[in-house]
Design the sequence.
């Protein structure tokens, strides 16, 4: 069983919105922290938003702060990334990830559970 499955990617024009979902095969409450990463072609995967599961505290990198919002549902089955005011430079493959560590982090090596990714393409 795939532990994390992303969906919601697609093509949108600049200024538009998308909501990515990450369905978990087990309760998200069993993780310490979850995050969204993105990867540009030929580049390393970079973390953009993270949420501490127990407290709901979030952290965003500057490039998405004020435009993107990470959240999880009350049923503890799904992680979301609401993306507004999308720009062409947001075009990338987006991944959700989960970890048992009890603190906010956007370091990829801290995460041991990953989804397969969903492509987001923003046209100008």
Sequence:
């Amino acid at each position: 069983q795939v532990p994390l499955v992303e969906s919601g990617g697609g093509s949108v024009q600049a200024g538009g919105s998308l909501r990515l979902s990450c369905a978990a095969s087990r309760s998200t409450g069993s993780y310490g922290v979850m995050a969204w990463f993105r990867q540009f072609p030929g580049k390393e995967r970079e973390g953009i938003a993270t949420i501490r599961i127990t407290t709901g505290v979030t952290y965003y990198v500057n490039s998405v702060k004020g435009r993107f919002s990470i959240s999880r549902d009350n049923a503890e089955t799904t992680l979301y990334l609401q993306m507004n005011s999308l720009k062409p430079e947001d075009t990338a493959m987006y991944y959700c990830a989960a970890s048992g560590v009890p603190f906010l982090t956007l370091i990829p090596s801290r995460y041991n559970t990953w989804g397969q990714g969903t492509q987001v393409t923003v046209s100008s």
Summary: The radius of gyration is 13 Å.
